[in-house]
Amino acid sequence: MRLYAVFGNPIAHSKSPLLHNAVFGHYEKELGFKGEYRPILLENPAELKHRFLELGLYGANITTPFKEAAFSLSDKVEGLAQEIQAVNTWVLREGLVVGYNTDIEGFLAPLKGLKLARALVFGAGGSARAVVCALQSRGVEVVVCNRSAEKLAYFRAQNVPCFLSKDCPSAAYDLIVNTTTAGLKDNSLPCEKSLLKALFRQAKYAYDLIYHQTPFLSLAQEHNLQTFDGKAMLIAQAVLSFAQFAPHLNSSLVLKTMQETLA
């Protein structure tokens, strides 16, 4: 039995175990091993690597709020994760914990074909870093707003315009993205409701990385925006993660199984 996991806080809501275990169950023969994927609630980011090794994991996903810690604790980092300094996938290779980021491609999956010139991103954690990188790769002008100033330093160093959420300019953006946990466990919004209403009146699309209906998305729909929740991103990044866990399994089979599981 090979064990895999997802680390986060909170973690009970995660659909990742459902998706990955469906693939392990369907393709045990093709994989050549039995796999099991578990959710793990973590309190202290400093314990992330210790827990990974202690549990004897072959691979793991890392979600909010530990993606930046995962980058720092990796023995080796590959791909765009090096650029954004945030890791959401770990694989054990030759005794080394190797980090990747599959959020970037995952985020863009439902946006194919849309014309985007300007975007506003709420939040400044590891997911926000991936979102900003993804949007910039498409030539989109991005502004970042966050409730606290500390994490904005990373974006300022990248010459990304940044504001505290309370000072967020009420300008016209094609896309407004919520990468915060607002709405995950409660009815909160990433900024004051009056500001969000003003932003939505001028926007076209709203995207929440949380994969259920949130107050953010509901308010966007009241303003007739086209909305996206995190389900498409969840599946897209999960397929890319599974490709690291089991690179010999056809990714189209993984995608089909995960889509059917979440339908």
Automatic annotation (TrEMBL):
Its EC number(s): 1.1.1.25
Pathway entry: Metabolic intermediate biosynthesis; chorismate biosynthesis; chorismate from D-erythrose 4-phosphate and phosphoenolpyruvate: step 4/7
Keywords: Amino-acid biosynthesis, Aromatic amino acid biosynthesis, NADP, Oxidoreductase
Positions that bind NADP(+): G123, A124, G125, G126, S127, L209, G230
InterPro entries tied to this protein: Aminoacid_DH-like_N_sf (IPR046346), NAD(P)-bd_dom_sf (IPR036291), Shikimate_DH (IPR011342), Shikimate_DH-bd_N (IPR013708), Shikimate_DH_fam (IPR022893)
Top-rank lineage group of the source organism: Bacteria
Enzyme class: oxidoreductase
Active site location: K67
CDD domains reported in the protein's UniProt record: NAD_bind_Shikimate_DH
Enzymatic reactions: shikimate + NADP(+) = 3-dehydroshikimate + NADPH + H(+)
Domain (Shikimate dehydrogenase substrate binding N-terminal) ranges: 6-89
UniProt keyword annotation of NADP present: yes
Positions of shikimate binding: S14, K15, S16, T63, N88, D103, Y211, Q237
Family: Belongs to the shikimate dehydrogenase family.
Known function: Involved in the biosynthesis of the chorismate, which leads to the biosynthesis of aromatic amino acids. Catalyzes the reversible NADPH linked reduction of 3-dehydroshikimate (DHSA) to yield shikimate (SA).
Subunit structure: Homodimer.
Protein name: Shikimate dehydrogenase (NADP(+))
Lineage: Bacteria, Pseudomonadati, Campylobacterota, Epsilonproteobacteria, Campylobacterales
Gene name tied to this protein: aroE
